Amino acid sequence: MAIVRGMAVCVSVLLLSCWIATGLMSNPAQAACANLPLALVVTPAAGSLPVTRNASVFYDQSGRLGLDDVADSDRFSRHCNAYLAAPAPGASLWLRLVLEPAPDSPSQWVLSFDTSGIDDIRAFQRLPDGRVTVRRAGRIVPPAERSITAWRPAVAIDLPPAQRAVIHVRVRGVAAPTLSAVMLPTRAFQAGSNASMMVAALFYGFLIAVIGFSSVIFYNAGIRYTGYYILYVFFVLVNTLFWDGVPYRLSEFAWSGGLANRISEMTGTLAGICLLQFGRQVLRLSGSASTADRIVILAIAMMGGAGLLAMFDPVSLAWPLHVTQMLGALALFTLSVRLAVAGYPPARPFALSFLCLFGGIGLSTWLYYLPSGTVLDATGASFFLLQPADWAFYVGICGEALFMAFALSALIRLSQRETAQAHAAAQADLARAQVSAQETDRKLQAVSARVAVLQNGDTIAGEANGLKASEVRLVEAATAYVQAHIDDPELGVKQLAEGLAVSEQTLRRRLKSSLGLTPAAFVRAQRLERARQLLASRRYDTVAQVTYAVGFASQGHFARLYREAFGQTPNQTLRGDGPAGELPSAMASCGPERR
Q1: Are 236 and 266 in contact (CB under 8 A)?
Q2: Is residue 534 situated within a structural domain?
Q3: Does residue 214 lie in a domain region?
Q4: How far is 247 from 19, CA to CA, in rounded Å?
Q5: Does 264 lie in the same domain as 220?
Q6: What CA–CA distance (Å, rounded) separates 113 from 180?
Q7: Based on the domain organization, do 164 and 199 belong to the same domain?
Q8: I want to staple 572 with a disulfide (CB 3.0 to 4.6 A). Which of 208, 291, 341, 577 is the partner?
Q9: Domain residues for 279?
Q10: Mind listing the pLDDT tens digit for each residue in 549-585?
């Protein structure tokens, strides 16, 4: 219950912070651009032109209106916002931007957006002679028809100096709750796009390196459940590639917006599930039937359900998945802290890792749904490099992976220490067993001589070895009875006493005084010696046949006793791999015979 209450408090604080941020972020944007002129003057010093803040906006809910339907209409209005709400599925967002270039201003510009998840962008520009140029970009636009092949959808805009220009832009199929646009000079756009590609490439390379490091641990350190972490990083890599629009940039295939969004949400779901399952293993929750384990299992189920919703509608129903991912990271962080307090050494770096993940995903999700308008005031390449939602995600994932590397190293050291301790304990047990076996061998030396005499049927020699005639006859009779019923797994003390017509107490006393063995140990010794003879003679083809022929009900139990008695396995004796001992050296130390 303490874990549940802690998670509830954290989630409540997060939601309250988002609500407060909504109020703080909306009003300044209105005040900052309320007095903007109708036409935006383009000067030579302009590093960028914030389109969404200066453009007039119209939402076509039908999605069927063309340029002629909206160009001269009064449907447009000024929103004065740095970010605009994305159009609903099937609807269109129209932007109208009036520009007045200075005589010496750049003539080549590029209209770019802050997200790669846009299906179709069309920029209409009416020329002085009445013709209209159309530039296209977007995920469903064939490569041959794209205005610019860039990291993110972008269209080229020509602004002849000292000529007023009116540009209409239609945007459809946005896989984000908001969007913003900016116009950059061609050189600034290329520099910013290349810098953004470099940062993304470094992030992809980092993820690939993490996969390689985790694979080394998986194959060499023997920590098999790192396979879940490898899958997690792989799915994060695929998710990021699709989210950043890499298939759009590199492939000749016109990716459907719905397909790319669903692949992104699916891989995000699988990444979260793999990480939660990995957390169950490293935090030693799996199979414990504890409350903590049930919480993680519940988080996995919730994430799977939220992922199905997101795949059904990646635009409107993605938020449950994002919230569940944050809750999953928060749950792992909370459980790691509890284990760290309890003294589990790897739990501390695990806690830091999951904290970075929770912070990165939480901040990225916050800025995704409630973006900040400060980025649009940046110039040139800064528009690409100062996207806070992307940086929050990158930093969160990188921090998680770095601390996870420390956590896995601590886990390996702990595993090696536990292995060394177990090995030392096993060596100590072996040494004690060897001492006990040597003592037992010394005690059984006299018994060995007596048994050998009795097996040869030499009564006089038996008496010479300290055995009374009555004891000799009893041992001979007991040996003959056991050999006659050796294949009976039910043969025990009671049946042997009845067969010899003596009481169980008398049988125990006489065997103990004459051979130093209990009746159960005597029967077991006879079975093992008979088994050795059968195996050595190869009368049977398999160990199982010999096991049942001498009255053992369990082949595993027989093999263990045989190895303790003769120093080799039954299979080795059957193959002839060296001679077995003549007499069980541990028969006096064995417990009651298992039937």
Answers
A1: no
A2: yes
A3: yes
A4: 35
A5: yes
A6: 6
A7: no
A8: 577
A9: 195-420
A10: 888 888 888 888 888 888 888 888 888 766 555 544 3
